[in-house]
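Subject: Sanity check before I submit

Could someone independently write out the structure tokens for this chain? I want to compare against mine line by line before I put it in a report. The sequence has 410 residues.
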Amino acid sequence: MTRAGYETARLRLARLRVEGDEARWVGARHALQISSGALSVERVGIWLFDSSHKRIDCQQLYIGSSRSFGAGSSLTANDFPGYFAALGERRAIAADDARTDPATAELREAYLVPNDINSMLDTPIIRAGQVVGVVCHEHVGAPRIWLQREIDFASTVADMVALIFEQSDRLTLEASLAAHNERSLENQKSEALRRLARAVAHDINNVLTSLSLAGDQLAARGDPSVTALAENVMHSVGLVHALSKQLLELGRGPASSPELSDVRSIFEAERPALTAILAGRATLTFEDRTDSARVMMEATEVERVLLNLTANARDAVQAEGHVSVVLRNPTAEDAVAHNHLILEFTDDGAGMDDATRARVFEPFFTTKDQGSGLGLALVHAAVIRAGGSLEVESSPGHGARFIVALPRAE
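---
Independent answer below. Compare away.
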């Protein structure tokens, strides 16, 4: 290849960008493909050392003739000490005849001959001053003499792979930090709302006390018209008092010694009530995939979660809808510790858009014509108070799935 050709290939390498951990190998595979074409090499692989630096594994291998990718072999320092020493000492291993070159000859029987490799050009991947791996160019067929411009280009490829890994790690760290900051802001907002709820409930109760006394005094006069007015006042006081109790629940902090409850037993006890809530709107199914359903949460809080999530599903589904409740152990997709229990509510209702889903747990937020907007806020507060987490997955027309993670009892 001409000098201009190598510069074009370098420019293509420089334009490679990744957007997180999942994309790092996408960028790395592009680099291997570019390098294979630029150097006319059949096999190009990325090999990375393990934590002990005693083994090196081929994480990605590009085969030029088939334009395919796969994983390769593993080599150990005990079996190939000379090759491992050369990897740590040289900026590039340019073995024109790999089967006789002192740095690579010991690979002959185990690796070179079985893969029809006669020439190798290895350049180390260096991160933070340490050799973490190598980009290995393996020429199949007759031995070839590596030119200096080819060695320089191979070194550029290794440097670009290192940059791809660095960029991937940085973006992954930034995403993790952003998620942490978002959770921190949400926690601060929730705590501020809890303090506000406690303060408002306290002031409301003071007013309710005065209204109750006034209502009692009116009723004691014995005048029928006044008594009827007093009853209306007391009825309104009762409604506001119920709202005040909900505000106090929203503002309550975690218990000093959490109560242990069995979610399975509570669900079975509440099943008639849950079925009644859904009557005429949806069917209810329950699946238990756990050995133990004991969690660190008060029984009344578990009941609140079950009742409110069921009522929310009822309002979301149309006639002949379906609500599924599953108790299960967490998986890798749940991003919670293994010592949690997952309570999963799924409905086939109208679903939510992104704006609604982002606010669904906010106190007083509701898309319904009637309702206080406290139901899901109370569920969220109860779950967080127990040391758990609550997530929702939904899109318009595809229902919703509420994923409750609760700390399992020891």
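---
OP: Matches mine. For the report I'm noting this point. The CA atoms of residues 215 and 231 lie 7 Å apart.
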